[in-house]
Amino acid sequence: MYVIDATQPHFQFRIGRTTFGVDIKIMRNTLLIAAMIIGVLAFNGCKDDDPVPEAKMKVNFNIEHQVNNQVLELDTMKYENQMREQFGVSTLRYFISNIYLITPTDSVEVSPIHFLEIRDQETYQFSNEIKKQEYTGVRMVFGIRKEENITNRFSDPPESLMEWPIPMGGGYHYMKFEGRFIDPQQAISNFQLHTGPTDGNDYSLSYEFPLQISAAGEVNLKLIHHLDHWMGDPNDLTLVDVTRIMGNTAMQEKIMANGHDVFEVELN
Amino acid sequence: MKWKIYIVVVLGAVSLMYTSCKDEDPQVTTTTPYELDLPENFPSLYIHPENPMTVEGVELGRMLFYDNMLSQNNDRACADCHDQGSAFTTEASNALAHINLGWAEHYLWKGEVTGSLEDIMEFEVADFFMADLDRFNADPYYKDAFKKAFGVDQITVRELSFALAQFERTLISADSKYDRFLRDEVSFTEEERRGWIYFNTEQGDCFHCHGGLLFTDNEFHNTGLDSLPEDGRMEYTGNPLDKGKFKTPTLRNIALTGPYMHDGRFKTLEEVIRFYSTGVHYSPTIDPLMKQVDQGGVQFTEEQIQDMIAFLHTLTDTTFINNPALSRPE
């Protein structure tokens, strides 16, 4: 047990009836050690290499669907394609992926993948906060690149319901585009334009849209999807041609060739 | 001085121990968590936040599933229309089979009930069976079982529904020959393999509605049964575009769950395949996925029809229909 030497300088205090004494030399050394520990901790906590937070800007994408340059109305038969077929749209589901804003030397991801369901307007928008700077364009992929288009990637609906069956190559549809049309026999028929990785091939499409985007607090971009463009230029296709083509590599290639001008991006 | 500090510390520790070890609130019941074995690559399973799976709850739900007491006249139980040997349906009832219902969001052929298993079970207890709660509250076995499972002294529709929902969540089928094929444990015969290909290509095109591991998209479709279809889903949504639409049933165990379609019009799988081959009728709300409607359907050959049937038989899960954990309690 330690005993205070009352002849040496010491510091006294009481708790209740008990008097406590602490040798001043011990107290001083203890306080010195404590101060050193606190100083080291404070120094480490305030080191200069803590990064300065990067300035951010919010990017909002809004997707608009058009047929013949008019905003899409579902479940009508009011449209006519370049082959003069009267048609209407019932179903539209698709993926876009690898969405970036770009500069000549930089590319910043906005979204790795986005699923659109035409009957769910919440899927028409997506946003992200990215590095605040000027950008010179938008880059994106229609569909899913082969290396990312893996069976069982999505376990939950609605994305999982886009599965592309294993006997046809596995992975997921890029798009399900369905509706009705007046067929050559003047009867109402169904069409289904389904694109995807037939036989394991990569038919995804890469786009780069030049666009001057200023560094601002918030930027609104409109992505326009021209549905009728899938059926023309350079390949004029009827709705009979584009139906039931999941296993048809030649038709998948033709559709994808037509896709060069299906999308455009503008500042909103 | 030191002994005074020791006393304070010891008294503090004893107080903490006493506080943590005092008798539990009598309203709180200790239940045993139920470990649900979920199949690989299945979608996420919704568990109601107020109805966690417990051993006590699942067992109570199983008892109720097989107990006539649920019905007002004491003359039928869930199991009378949902027999395990027929993959939890019966030929007489043509009820939708209770297979993997934990992954459903809409229930019954026209989607009369939407929500969780707790919601559909509440419908069954309150609206279908119109269960007599007094009878349950007078029964010593159920009083004790509900106390253990839910900590309640008074049994209500809620607890009856919750118990049934817990049991229903365990009705998981994922060990058919098809599942074993996916796991590389077995091979298909040539007929089964060809049928698998027709099913999963646009030759048969079944997968668009009956795809994924659930073999249903859990949506509603008008598949062209009639040129003048019944109201179907429209009866509940009021949407004219839903006319003639009925829920996509799972094809798991389909060889056991006849008859087929919402009205049981087809008695055999062969009749179903022939319907999709040449029997489809156009109506304004026919699903856009239906192919060659003007010709009556996908135009299978006779060999293709038999191959399709062979593949569908691979979806039978004998483990599921013989699992004692799902059977009538002894």
Description:
The complex is a heterodimer of chains A (268) and B (330). In chain A, 12% of the residues lie in helices and 41% in strands. Chain A has helices spanning 24-45, 249-258; strands at residues 10-15, 18-23, 56-67, 70-71, 79-80, 86-102, 107-117, 125-131, 135-142, 175-182, 188-195, 205-213, 218-226, 263-267. In chain A, strand 5 (79-80) and strand 6 form a beta hairpin. Chain A starts with 9 loop residues before the first strand and ends with a strand. Chain B has 330 residues and is mostly helical. Chain B has 14 helices and four strands. In chain B, a hairpin with a 5-residue loop joins strand 1 and strand 2. Classes of the chains: A mainly beta (268), B mainly alpha (330). The interface between A and B is medium-sized, with 32 and 28 residues.
Strand order of the largest sheet of chain B: 1-2
Low-confidence stretches of chain B: 21-27
Which stretches of chain A of 5+ consecutive residues score pLDDT under 50? none
* SSE order of chain A, one letter for each helix or strand: EEHEEEEEEEEEEEHE
Radius of gyration of chain B: 25 Å
How far do the termini of chain B sit from each other? 69 Å
Measured by DSSP, the beta-strand proportion of chain B falls in under 5%
Largest interface: A-B, 32 and 28 residues
Please work out how many helical segments of chain A DSSP would assign.
2
Highlighted features:
heterodimer, A: 268 residues, mainly beta, 7-stranded antiparallel beta sheet, 5-stranded mixed beta sheet, 2 helices, 12% helix, 41% strand, elongated, B: 330 residues, mainly alpha, two-stranded antiparallel ribbon, 4 strands, globular
Brief sketch in words of this structure:
The complex is a heterodimer of chains A (268) and B (330). Chain A has 268 residues and is mostly beta strands.
